[in-house]
């Protein structure tokens, strides 16, 4: 394990996802701890720490990809919250999801909007 990548990744994960990211990693501890380490080191220590995009743009792109995939609802929920956490607005998320209707279809966009509604409801509960 490269300490610098891991440390940088943990810090970036906390910055982006807050407690939700750590819960994902903790959930992998017993079953697949290496997968959690890969997410921290590569995903957040390498990719999310690159200088080319700010965190808001990275999260909007991630939300778009997850909506288009259509089969990653738990991850979409985490990244919708993360997008809001790093400064994306509700309106920006809605526009990204609507944009996906053009490329991934209306079912994907409808599911994305439903996910956003559920995230908002949990945040207001």
Could you give a quick summary of the protein structure above?
The chain contains seven helices and no strands.
Give structural notes.
The chain has 125 residues and is mainly α. It folds into two domains: 51 residues, no CATH class; 73 residues, AhpD-like. Helix content is 82%, strand content 0%. The chain is built from seven helices and no strands. The model has no long low-confidence stretch (mean pLDDT 94).
Counting helices, strands and paired strands, the structural category is: mainly alpha
Radius of gyration: 15 Å
Number of spatially distinct domains: 2
Shape: globular
Can you tell me the residue ranges where pLDDT is under 50 for at least 5 consecutive residues? none
User: Roughly how much helix do the residues carry, as a percent range?
Assistant: over 70%
Roughly what is the average pLDDT, rounded to an integer? 94
What is the assigned CATH homologous superfamily of the largest domain? AhpD-like
Give the amount of beta strand, in percent: under 5%
The total of helices stands at 7
Distance between the termini: 39 Å
- The CATH architecture category of the largest domain equals Up-down Bundle
The fold-level CATH name of the largest domain is AhpD-like
The CATH C-level name of the largest domain is Mainly Alpha
Q: Let me know the number of strands.
A: 0
- Give, in order, the helices and strands: HHHHHHH
Biggest pleated sheet: none
């Amino acid at each position: 394990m490269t300490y610098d990548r891991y440390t940088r990744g943990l810090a970036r994960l906390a910055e982006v996802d807050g407690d939700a990211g750590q819960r994902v990693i903790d959930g992998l501890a017993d079953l697949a701890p290496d997968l959690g380490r890969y997410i921290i080191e590569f995903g957040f220590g390498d990719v999310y720490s690159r200088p080319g995009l700010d965190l808001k743009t990275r999260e909007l792109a991630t939300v778009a990809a997850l909506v288009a995939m259509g089969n990653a609802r738990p991850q979409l929920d985490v990244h919708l919250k993360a997008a809001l956490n790093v400064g994306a607005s509700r309106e920006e998320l809605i526009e990204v999801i609507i944009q996906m209707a053009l490329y991934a279809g209306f079912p994907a966009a409808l599911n994305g909007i439903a996910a956003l509604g559920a995230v908002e409801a949990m945040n207001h509960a």
